[in-house]
Amino acid sequence: MSTNSLSMPSLSMLDLVAVREGGTVADALSIAVRTAQQAERLGFSRYWLAEHHNMPGIASSSTAVLIGHIAGQTGAIRVGSGGIMLPNHAPLVVAEAFGTLSELYPNRIDLGLGRAPGTDGPTMRALRRDRVETEEDFPRDVSELQRLLGPVQPGQRITAVPGADTNVPIWLLGSSMFSAQLAAEKGLPYAFASHFAPRFLMPALEIYRATFKPSATLKKPYVMIGVPVIAAPTDEEAEYLASSTYQRVLGILTNQRGLLQPPLQNFMERIGPREREAIGDFLAIGVIGGPDRVKQGFKALAEATEADEFMLVSDVYDPELRLRSLEIAAAAAKG
Questions:
Q1: Which stretch of DSSP H or E encloses residue 142?
Q2: Rounded (10°) CA dihedral 243, 228, 54, 81
Q3: Cβ 314 vs Cβ 16: under 8 Å
């Protein structure tokens, strides 16, 4: 794609609802509402929440409940899951929850589905009880959800009430080839988790587009990619604010997850070269900087991926500066 014909992807936001050092879960939930309202003001397409469990720094474990709360505090923006970790739930329960949300907020609810547990081993067992997941379960559960959210068929024994005939849009999420292939086979929109697994982004998009089969849902491939973004008036301030993200990523890589930390001056210079390299790999497609750098970063990413939508992830410690980061990013995306 040439830069002359380049059209910028639409913007959306993924929120992990970070609990901040010195703050509470209630604070995190309040900040999420304000952030969603800002995203709506800025014209973002959607605001998604991710299911994670047993993580002290993330308050979005009860994802469907929080989606309803956010949808009730906004007016038109689509609100959904990025994603619901399907192995943790029976498809009927998911269909009833999202069917209820769809009836409450018509044409505003998205159901993004992932096949990872979104947690550690002991918590996974607590969620699933005695269930043992196999590779065949995820495709089968996705198909069952499509049936439960679609029109009731003659002789159908189990009906989701609410849920049936709501046709809540289903997205498949992934960080590898598996979901790319499944989304292509089913003709569903595909969201790649490049905000934490950028290494396989291009191969996954290539497989998805090359093998896509048109469906009643979607006539041609539709791609969303996760993009870490920290925007500020200057490159220097953005790099400083990004140190909160760097600390969070280092905690993930060293299995020392905790609360979102305040920014630190020269954080990357305080750690070793291996840690810096690992953080850099994790955030390889991150866009961090002032307005010009963000604008150029978005253009380069759009040209490389031809994505239809950017799903921004912005872990800024100060809530007001996070809202400002989204404003600067939105302006940069408009050119």
A1: helix 137-149
A2: 160
A3: no
- Please state whether 306 falls in left (phi above 0), alpha (psi between -120 and 50) or beta: left
* Integer Cα distance of 93 and 10 in angstroms: 31
The mean per-residue pLDDT over the stretch 106-123 comes to 83
97 in Cβ contact with 49 (< 8 Å): no
Q: Is-contact 188 215, C-beta < 8 A? A: yes
Q: Evaluate the CA torsion angle 12, 169, 49, 267 in order and state its sign.
A: negative
Q: Distance (Å, rounded) from C-alpha 233 to C-alpha 292?
A: 9
Give 228-285 pLDDT, tens digit per residue.
999 999 999 999 999 999 999 999 999 898 999 999 999 999 999 999 999 999 999 9
Write down the pTM of the prediction.
Answer: 0.94
Q: Does the structure show a pLDDT above 50 at 2?
A: no
Residue bearing the bigger pLDDT, 7 or 200:
200
Rounded to a whole number of angstroms, the CA Rg of the chain reads 19
- Angstrom distance (rounded) from CA 258 to CA 220: 41
Q: Let me know: does 78 contact 47? Beta carbons within 8 Å.
A: yes
Could you report the per-residue pLDDT of 153-187, keeping only the tens digit for each? 999 999 999 999 999 999 999 998 999 999 999 99
Helix, coil or strand: residue 271: coil
Q: Tokens 């899951």 — which residue?
A: 81
Nearest to 203 by CA among 190, 189, 217: 190
| Phi-psi region at 286: left, alpha or beta (left = phi > 0; alpha = psi -120 to 50) | beta
* Torsion of Cα atoms, 85 then 46 then 173 then 3, to 10°: -160
